[in-house]
Amino acid sequence: MLIFLFSLVYADIGSDLKLASNTTLEKSLRKDAFQRLVRDGNADSDPLIAIATNTNAGVQERWISIRALGKIGGKKVVRELRVLLKDPKSDIRIAACSALGQTRLWSVADDVQALLEDGVLLVRVASAQSLGEIGNPSAIPALEKALRDQAHFHRGKSLWVRTHFVDALGKIRNKKAYSALLFAIDDQDGKVQKSAIQALEYISGISFSEGRKHEEERQAWKRWLSAKMTE
């Protein structure tokens, strides 16, 4: 009887996975299917874990399962998500990063920040975004290192990924990021400068934008940061 009921659970999950993964369906239908996966997974996460960790399953189904697990959380789920950070497929590592970010557990920050050095650029982006969601200040040095890393420049020009490191520093919302943001606000890349200003506004709760052009605003922030760092 138990085996029969367990097979029904897998059947329901398999059906909802197909619906949630079908991009030809209306968004509302896919969303409803995903919410059912989360609901059923809250009752028993084992079927979703089995799919998420099955290397023979389709990447899209694994991706959906992992994202649902991020909504569910719990010790067992987090343990499996940590393992998936080392999956050979970059899409799965990205999904695991995002799912762990959803848990907002400070204890997973070290695992996630290790992927700031992943060989795939989009995985590094997912790692930064997840660290911003988690909000653990312990990730600040790793994000600053990534911001300065020459691997994120091409022929001397800043790569777009660097703005994600700065955004994460802002979302962590901690004054320990001021040193990194002082570096970022003086960056050669105008987009990095703007991201640094937004991050500073988020952390400090103040703004120097009113009545100032970009360069004037930037200089005002540099003066403010210099004063704050000598207090």
Please outline the helices and strands:
Blueprint: H1 2-21, H2 27-43, H3 46-52, H4 59-72, H5 75-84, H6 90-103, H7 109-113, H8 121-134, H9 140-148, E1 153-154, E2 157-158, H10 162-172, H11 178-185, H12 190-204, H13 214-229
Antiparallel strand pairs: 1-2
Helix pairs in contact: 1-2, 1-4, 2-4, 3-4, 4-6, 5-6, 6-8, 8-10, 9-10, 10-12, 11-12, 11-13
Provide tags for this entry.
2% strand, Leucine-rich Repeat Variant, elongated, mainly alpha, 2 domains, two-stranded antiparallel sheet
Shape: elongated
**What is the tally of helical segments?**
13
What is the spatial order of strands in the main beta sheet?
1-2
Quick one: how many beta strands?
2
The run of helices and strands is: HHHHHHHHHEEHHHH
- Structural classification: mainly alpha
Main sheet overview: 2 strands, antiparallel
CATH class designation of the largest domain: Mainly Alpha
Q: What is the CATH homology-level superfamily of the largest domain?
A: Leucine-rich Repeat Variant
End-to-end CA span: 69 Å
Low-confidence stretches: 1-10
- Please state the average pLDDT score: 92
Total domain units: 2
Q: How would you describe this protein?
A:
The protein is mainly alpha-helical and 231 residues long. Helices cover 69% and strands 2% of the residues. The chain is built from 13 helices and 2 strands. It has a two-stranded antiparallel sheet with strand order 1-2. A hairpin with a 2-residue loop joins strand 1 and strand 2. The chain starts with a helix and ends with a helix.
